[in-house]
Amino acid sequence: MDFNSSISSSNISWLSSNESTVSPATVDWDGIRHTVRWLVPIFFGIIAVTGFFGNLLVILVVMLNKTMHSTTNLLIVNLAAADLMFVIFCVPFTATDYVTQYWPFGTLWCRSVQYLIVVTAYASIYTLVLMSIDRFLAVVHPIRSRMLRTEHITKIAIFMLWTVVLTVSLPVAYSHDVVVEHNNVTNETVALCQFTSNDLLDLDTFQMSFFVSSYLLPLMIISGLYMRMIMRLWHQGSGVRMSKESQRGRKRVTRLVVVVVIAFASLWLPVQLILLLKALDMYEMNTMTKVVLQIMAQTLAYTSSCINPLLYAFLSDNFRKAFYKAINCSSRYQNYTSDLPPPRKTSYGRTSTTGF
Protein backbone atom coordinates (compact mmCIF):
# COMPACT_ATOMS: atom_id res chain seq x y z
CA MET A 1 0.00 0.00 0.00
CA ASP A 2 1.46 3.36 -0.97
CA PHE A 3 1.12 5.12 2.36
CA ASN A 4 3.41 7.94 1.30
CA SER A 5 1.58 8.93 -1.83
CA SER A 6 -1.86 7.36 -1.78
CA ILE A 7 -2.82 7.41 1.88
CA SER A 8 -1.02 10.36 3.34
CA SER A 9 -0.19 11.75 -0.10
CA SER A 10 3.51 11.26 0.55
CA ASN A 11 4.32 14.72 1.79
CA ILE A 12 2.96 18.21 1.76
CA SER A 13 5.12 19.26 -1.20
CA TRP A 14 3.35 16.68 -3.33
CA LEU A 15 -0.02 17.76 -2.01
CA SER A 16 0.43 21.40 -2.81
CA SER A 17 1.74 20.73 -6.30
CA ASN A 18 -0.95 18.27 -7.32
CA GLU A 19 -4.17 19.62 -5.88
CA SER A 20 -4.93 21.58 -9.01
CA THR A 21 -8.50 22.24 -7.97
CA VAL A 22 -7.38 24.18 -4.93
CA SER A 23 -5.86 27.61 -5.20
CA PRO A 24 -2.68 28.06 -3.13
CA ALA A 25 -4.25 31.16 -1.65
CA THR A 26 -7.13 29.17 -0.21
CA VAL A 27 -4.98 26.61 1.59
CA ASP A 28 -2.46 27.40 4.30
CA TRP A 29 0.27 25.06 3.08
CA ASP A 30 2.87 26.64 5.37
CA GLY A 31 0.62 25.94 8.33
CA ILE A 32 0.12 22.36 7.18
CA ARG A 33 3.87 21.85 6.79
CA HIS A 34 4.48 23.26 10.26
CA THR A 35 1.80 21.00 11.76
CA VAL A 36 3.19 17.92 10.04
CA ARG A 37 6.78 18.65 11.10
CA TRP A 38 5.97 18.59 14.82
CA LEU A 39 3.02 16.20 14.82
CA VAL A 40 4.54 13.29 12.89
CA PRO A 41 7.85 12.97 14.81
CA ILE A 42 6.00 12.86 18.14
CA PHE A 43 3.44 10.24 17.13
CA PHE A 44 5.78 8.12 15.02
CA GLY A 45 8.51 8.35 17.65
CA ILE A 46 6.21 6.94 20.33
CA ILE A 47 5.14 4.15 17.97
CA ALA A 48 8.71 3.29 17.03
CA VAL A 49 10.04 3.10 20.59
CA THR A 50 7.02 1.29 22.04
CA GLY A 51 6.73 -1.09 19.10
CA PHE A 52 10.42 -1.98 19.05
CA PHE A 53 10.84 -2.82 22.73
CA GLY A 54 7.34 -4.26 23.19
CA ASN A 55 7.47 -6.68 20.28
CA LEU A 56 11.07 -7.63 20.97
CA LEU A 57 10.06 -8.43 24.54
CA VAL A 58 7.18 -10.61 23.34
CA ILE A 59 9.50 -12.60 21.07
CA LEU A 60 12.14 -13.09 23.76
CA VAL A 61 9.63 -14.01 26.46
CA VAL A 62 8.04 -16.76 24.39
CA MET A 63 11.19 -18.14 22.76
CA LEU A 64 13.21 -18.28 26.00
CA ASN A 65 10.47 -19.98 28.04
CA LYS A 66 9.67 -23.52 26.96
CA THR A 67 6.58 -23.53 29.14
CA MET A 68 5.09 -20.90 26.85
CA HIS A 69 5.64 -22.82 23.62
CA SER A 70 2.27 -23.55 22.03
CA THR A 71 0.55 -23.12 18.70
CA THR A 72 -1.09 -19.85 19.71
CA ASN A 73 2.10 -18.42 21.15
CA LEU A 74 4.07 -19.30 18.02
CA LEU A 75 1.52 -17.28 16.05
CA ILE A 76 1.83 -14.45 18.56
CA VAL A 77 5.62 -14.49 18.00
CA ASN A 78 5.03 -14.35 14.25
CA LEU A 79 2.70 -11.38 14.70
CA ALA A 80 5.29 -9.64 16.88
CA ALA A 81 8.01 -10.34 14.28
CA ALA A 82 5.92 -8.76 11.52
CA ASP A 83 5.23 -5.72 13.70
CA LEU A 84 8.92 -5.47 14.64
CA MET A 85 9.94 -5.52 10.96
CA PHE A 86 7.47 -2.75 10.26
CA VAL A 87 8.75 -0.62 13.15
CA ILE A 88 12.39 -1.01 12.08
CA PHE A 89 12.16 -0.79 8.31
CA CYS A 90 9.11 1.40 7.67
CA VAL A 91 8.20 3.84 10.44
CA PRO A 92 11.49 5.86 10.58
CA PHE A 93 11.64 6.36 6.82
CA THR A 94 7.98 7.29 6.50
CA ALA A 95 8.42 9.85 9.29
CA THR A 96 11.51 11.28 7.58
CA ASP A 97 9.58 11.58 4.33
CA TYR A 98 6.92 13.64 6.11
CA VAL A 99 9.39 15.94 7.82
CA THR A 100 11.80 16.54 4.93
CA GLN A 101 9.02 17.07 2.35
CA TYR A 102 10.92 14.87 -0.13
CA TRP A 103 12.33 11.33 -0.43
CA PRO A 104 16.07 11.33 0.37
CA PHE A 105 16.74 7.56 0.35
CA GLY A 106 16.82 6.71 -3.34
CA THR A 107 14.86 4.39 -5.60
CA LEU A 108 15.90 1.07 -4.03
CA TRP A 109 14.75 2.01 -0.54
CA CYS A 110 11.62 3.71 -1.90
CA ARG A 111 10.54 0.40 -3.39
CA SER A 112 11.76 -1.59 -0.39
CA VAL A 113 9.86 0.47 2.19
CA GLN A 114 6.59 0.37 0.27
CA TYR A 115 7.05 -3.36 -0.33
CA LEU A 116 7.73 -4.05 3.35
CA ILE A 117 4.72 -2.01 4.45
CA VAL A 118 2.46 -4.23 2.35
CA VAL A 119 4.27 -7.42 3.39
CA THR A 120 4.00 -6.68 7.11
CA ALA A 121 0.37 -5.60 6.78
CA TYR A 122 -0.53 -8.86 5.02
CA ALA A 123 1.57 -10.91 7.45
CA SER A 124 -0.16 -9.31 10.43
CA ILE A 125 -3.75 -9.73 9.28
CA TYR A 126 -3.29 -13.28 8.00
CA THR A 127 -1.47 -14.26 11.18
CA LEU A 128 -4.64 -13.15 12.95
CA VAL A 129 -6.59 -15.37 10.55
CA LEU A 130 -4.36 -18.31 11.52
CA MET A 131 -4.82 -17.48 15.19
CA SER A 132 -8.58 -17.44 14.69
CA ILE A 133 -8.47 -20.81 12.92
CA ASP A 134 -6.35 -22.19 15.77
CA ARG A 135 -8.86 -20.95 18.35
CA PHE A 136 -11.78 -22.24 16.26
CA LEU A 137 -10.30 -25.74 16.10
CA ALA A 138 -9.42 -25.72 19.81
CA VAL A 139 -12.93 -24.69 20.85
CA VAL A 140 -15.21 -26.30 18.28
CA HIS A 141 -13.20 -29.42 17.44
CA PRO A 142 -10.89 -29.96 20.45
CA ILE A 143 -10.38 -33.70 19.94
CA ARG A 144 -10.38 -34.07 16.16
CA SER A 145 -8.02 -31.09 15.66
CA ARG A 146 -5.35 -32.30 18.07
CA MET A 147 -3.18 -33.72 15.29
CA LEU A 148 -3.38 -30.44 13.37
CA ARG A 149 -2.72 -28.09 16.26
CA THR A 150 0.95 -28.96 16.78
CA GLU A 151 4.05 -26.78 16.80
CA HIS A 152 5.34 -28.51 13.67
CA ILE A 153 2.17 -27.85 11.65
CA THR A 154 2.04 -24.28 12.95
CA LYS A 155 5.63 -23.63 11.81
CA ILE A 156 4.77 -24.98 8.36
CA ALA A 157 1.71 -22.70 8.21
CA ILE A 158 3.83 -19.68 9.21
CA PHE A 159 6.46 -20.52 6.57
CA MET A 160 3.79 -20.86 3.87
CA LEU A 161 2.20 -17.58 4.98
CA TRP A 162 5.45 -15.66 4.58
CA THR A 163 6.22 -17.34 1.26
CA VAL A 164 2.86 -16.33 -0.19
CA VAL A 165 2.95 -12.81 1.25
CA LEU A 166 6.48 -12.10 0.03
CA THR A 167 5.54 -13.34 -3.44
CA VAL A 168 2.18 -11.67 -3.99
CA SER A 169 3.53 -8.33 -2.73
CA LEU A 170 6.30 -8.12 -5.36
CA PRO A 171 4.23 -5.97 -7.79
CA VAL A 172 4.21 -3.25 -5.12
CA ALA A 173 7.98 -2.87 -5.35
CA TYR A 174 7.92 -2.64 -9.13
CA SER A 175 5.04 -0.13 -9.06
CA HIS A 176 6.94 2.45 -6.99
CA ASP A 177 9.68 4.80 -8.05
CA VAL A 178 11.30 8.10 -7.19
CA VAL A 179 9.51 10.73 -9.27
CA VAL A 180 10.72 14.28 -9.75
CA GLU A 181 7.88 16.76 -9.26
CA HIS A 182 7.71 20.54 -9.61
CA ASN A 183 6.08 22.35 -6.69
CA ASN A 184 3.94 25.17 -8.08
CA VAL A 185 3.69 26.84 -4.69
CA THR A 186 7.37 26.98 -3.71
CA ASN A 187 8.67 26.78 -7.29
CA GLU A 188 10.98 23.93 -6.27
CA THR A 189 11.77 20.58 -7.84
CA VAL A 190 11.70 17.66 -5.43
CA ALA A 191 12.13 13.88 -5.62
CA LEU A 192 9.16 11.91 -4.26
CA CYS A 193 8.54 8.22 -3.62
CA GLN A 194 5.26 7.53 -5.42
CA PHE A 195 3.11 4.82 -6.92
CA THR A 196 3.64 4.75 -10.70
CA SER A 197 0.79 3.25 -12.69
CA ASN A 198 1.72 0.75 -15.40
CA ASP A 199 0.04 -1.57 -17.88
CA LEU A 200 -0.40 -4.28 -15.26
CA LEU A 201 -1.50 -2.25 -12.26
CA ASP A 202 -2.96 1.20 -11.70
CA LEU A 203 -3.37 2.98 -8.38
CA ASP A 204 -7.15 2.71 -8.07
CA THR A 205 -7.14 -1.01 -8.87
CA PHE A 206 -4.38 -1.58 -6.37
CA GLN A 207 -6.12 0.32 -3.60
CA MET A 208 -9.39 -1.53 -4.16
CA SER A 209 -7.70 -4.94 -4.28
CA PHE A 210 -5.64 -4.15 -1.18
CA PHE A 211 -8.75 -3.10 0.74
CA VAL A 212 -10.54 -6.34 -0.15
CA SER A 213 -7.59 -8.73 0.29
CA SER A 214 -5.97 -7.20 3.39
CA TYR A 215 -9.03 -6.05 5.31
CA LEU A 216 -12.51 -6.98 4.12
CA LEU A 217 -11.97 -10.65 3.21
CA PRO A 218 -9.84 -11.69 6.22
CA LEU A 219 -12.15 -9.92 8.67
CA MET A 220 -15.15 -11.68 7.13
CA ILE A 221 -13.37 -15.01 7.64
CA ILE A 222 -12.41 -14.13 11.21
CA SER A 223 -15.92 -12.91 12.05
CA GLY A 224 -17.47 -16.12 10.72
CA LEU A 225 -15.10 -18.27 12.77
CA TYR A 226 -15.76 -16.32 15.96
CA MET A 227 -19.52 -16.35 15.54
CA ARG A 228 -19.37 -20.13 15.39
CA MET A 229 -16.90 -20.21 18.26
CA ILE A 230 -18.94 -18.00 20.56
CA MET A 231 -21.97 -20.19 20.00
CA ARG A 232 -19.95 -23.21 21.10
CA LEU A 233 -18.37 -21.47 24.08
CA TRP A 234 -21.69 -20.43 25.55
CA HIS A 235 -23.60 -23.54 24.55
CA GLN A 236 -21.26 -26.43 25.23
CA GLY A 237 -22.65 -29.08 22.95
CA SER A 238 -19.53 -30.85 21.77
CA GLY A 239 -19.97 -33.79 24.11
CA VAL A 240 -16.51 -33.17 25.58
CA ARG A 241 -16.53 -32.93 29.34
CA MET A 242 -14.52 -30.06 30.70
CA SER A 243 -14.05 -28.72 34.18
CA LYS A 244 -15.15 -25.20 34.96
CA GLU A 245 -11.50 -24.23 35.20
CA SER A 246 -10.86 -25.57 31.69
CA GLN A 247 -13.84 -23.68 30.32
CA ARG A 248 -12.71 -20.43 31.95
CA GLY A 249 -9.20 -20.90 30.63
CA ARG A 250 -10.39 -21.59 27.11
CA LYS A 251 -12.56 -18.48 27.21
CA ARG A 252 -9.62 -16.36 28.43
CA VAL A 253 -7.45 -17.53 25.57
CA THR A 254 -10.19 -16.88 23.03
CA ARG A 255 -10.95 -13.47 24.56
CA LEU A 256 -7.32 -12.41 24.12
CA VAL A 257 -7.32 -13.36 20.43
CA VAL A 258 -10.69 -11.64 19.90
CA VAL A 259 -9.44 -8.40 21.48
CA VAL A 260 -6.27 -8.47 19.35
CA VAL A 261 -8.36 -8.92 16.21
CA ILE A 262 -10.78 -6.14 17.18
CA ALA A 263 -7.87 -3.79 17.92
CA PHE A 264 -6.33 -4.50 14.52
CA ALA A 265 -9.64 -4.03 12.70
CA SER A 266 -10.43 -0.78 14.54
CA LEU A 267 -7.01 0.78 14.11
CA TRP A 268 -6.82 -0.02 10.41
CA LEU A 269 -10.41 0.98 9.60
CA PRO A 270 -9.85 4.77 9.14
CA VAL A 271 -6.89 4.41 6.78
CA GLN A 272 -8.61 1.61 4.84
CA LEU A 273 -11.67 3.81 4.40
CA ILE A 274 -9.49 6.64 3.10
CA LEU A 275 -7.90 4.20 0.64
CA LEU A 276 -11.32 3.14 -0.56
CA LEU A 277 -12.60 6.69 -0.89
CA LYS A 278 -9.49 7.71 -2.81
CA ALA A 279 -9.95 4.81 -5.20
CA LEU A 280 -13.55 5.98 -5.77
CA ASP A 281 -12.40 9.62 -6.26
CA MET A 282 -14.41 10.67 -3.22
CA TYR A 283 -11.57 12.05 -1.09
CA GLU A 284 -9.34 15.00 -1.97
CA MET A 285 -6.57 16.57 0.06
CA ASN A 286 -7.75 20.17 -0.04
CA THR A 287 -8.06 21.29 3.58
CA MET A 288 -5.98 21.30 6.75
CA THR A 289 -8.62 19.09 8.38
CA LYS A 290 -8.26 16.38 5.74
CA VAL A 291 -4.47 16.48 6.00
CA VAL A 292 -4.62 16.06 9.77
CA LEU A 293 -7.25 13.32 9.45
CA GLN A 294 -5.02 11.36 7.10
CA ILE A 295 -2.04 11.74 9.42
CA MET A 296 -4.16 10.56 12.34
CA ALA A 297 -5.51 7.63 10.29
CA GLN A 298 -2.02 6.57 9.32
CA THR A 299 -0.86 6.96 12.92
CA LEU A 300 -3.69 4.72 14.13
CA ALA A 301 -2.75 2.06 11.56
CA TYR A 302 0.88 2.23 12.65
CA THR A 303 -0.21 2.01 16.29
CA SER A 304 -1.38 -1.55 15.61
CA SER A 305 2.30 -2.51 15.42
CA CYS A 306 2.91 -1.63 19.07
CA ILE A 307 -0.38 -2.20 20.89
CA ASN A 308 -0.41 -6.01 21.03
CA PRO A 309 2.22 -6.34 23.81
CA LEU A 310 0.07 -4.04 25.95
CA LEU A 311 -2.97 -6.23 25.30
CA TYR A 312 -1.07 -9.35 26.29
CA ALA A 313 0.06 -7.68 29.51
CA PHE A 314 -3.50 -6.73 30.45
CA LEU A 315 -5.30 -9.89 29.33
CA SER A 316 -2.86 -12.73 29.94
CA ASP A 317 -1.54 -13.59 33.39
CA ASN A 318 1.12 -15.75 31.78
CA PHE A 319 2.49 -12.93 29.63
CA ARG A 320 2.17 -10.41 32.44
CA LYS A 321 4.33 -12.49 34.75
CA ALA A 322 6.84 -13.17 32.00
CA PHE A 323 7.03 -9.46 31.16
CA TYR A 324 7.52 -8.65 34.82
CA LYS A 325 10.42 -11.04 35.15
CA ALA A 326 12.06 -9.91 31.91
CA ILE A 327 11.85 -6.24 32.88
CA ASN A 328 12.92 -6.67 36.50
CA CYS A 329 15.43 -9.47 35.86
CA SER A 330 14.25 -11.17 39.03
CA SER A 331 13.52 -14.80 39.86
CA ARG A 332 10.24 -14.05 41.54
CA TYR A 333 8.31 -15.59 38.68
CA GLN A 334 10.67 -18.36 37.80
CA ASN A 335 7.81 -20.77 37.14
CA TYR A 336 5.04 -19.56 34.85
CA THR A 337 1.43 -20.49 35.29
CA SER A 338 -0.60 -20.93 32.17
CA ASP A 339 -3.83 -19.10 31.50
CA LEU A 340 -5.30 -22.57 31.11
CA PRO A 341 -5.13 -25.56 33.49
CA PRO A 342 -2.21 -27.99 33.12
CA PRO A 343 -2.37 -30.80 30.54
CA ARG A 344 -4.55 -33.71 31.57
CA LYS A 345 -5.00 -37.26 30.36
CA THR A 346 -8.02 -37.87 28.20
CA SER A 347 -10.00 -41.05 27.86
CA TYR A 348 -7.86 -41.83 24.84
CA GLY A 349 -4.70 -41.94 26.94
CA ARG A 350 -3.29 -38.80 25.30
CA THR A 351 -2.34 -35.48 26.77
CA SER A 352 -4.89 -32.73 26.21
CA THR A 353 -3.74 -29.12 25.94
CA THR A 354 -5.75 -26.16 24.73
CA GLY A 355 -3.99 -23.08 25.99
CA PHE A 356 -0.94 -20.90 25.85
Automatic annotation (TrEMBL):
Record's subcellular location: Cell membrane
CDD domains according to UniProt: 7tmA_AstA_R_insect
Pfam family name, one: 7tm_1
Any one cellular-component term (Gene Ontology): plasma membrane
Chain ranges of the G-protein coupled receptors family 1 profile domain: 54-312
Keyword Translocase: no
Sequence intervals crossing the membrane: 38-62, 74-95, 115-133, 153-174, 210-231, 252-271, 291-315
Family annotation (PROSITE patterns): G_PROTEIN_RECEP_F1_1, G_PROTEIN_RECEP_F1_2
Keywords: Cell membrane, Disulfide bond, G-protein coupled receptor, Glycoprotein, Membrane, Receptor, Transducer, Transmembrane, Transmembrane helix
UniProt membrane topology term: Multi-pass membrane protein
UniProt xrefs under InterPro entries: Galanin_rcpt, GPCR_Rhodpsn, GPCR_Rhodpsn_7TM
Superkingdom of origin: Eukaryota
Leader sequence segment: none
Gene3D superfamilies in UniProt: Rhodopsin 7-helix transmembrane proteins (1.20.1070.10)
Coiled-coil regions, chain positions: none
Entry GO MF terms: G protein-coupled receptor activity
Family: Belongs to the G-protein coupled receptor 1 family.
Protein name: AR-2
Species of origin: Drosophila busckii
Organism phylogeny: Eukaryota, Metazoa, Ecdysozoa, Arthropoda, Hexapoda
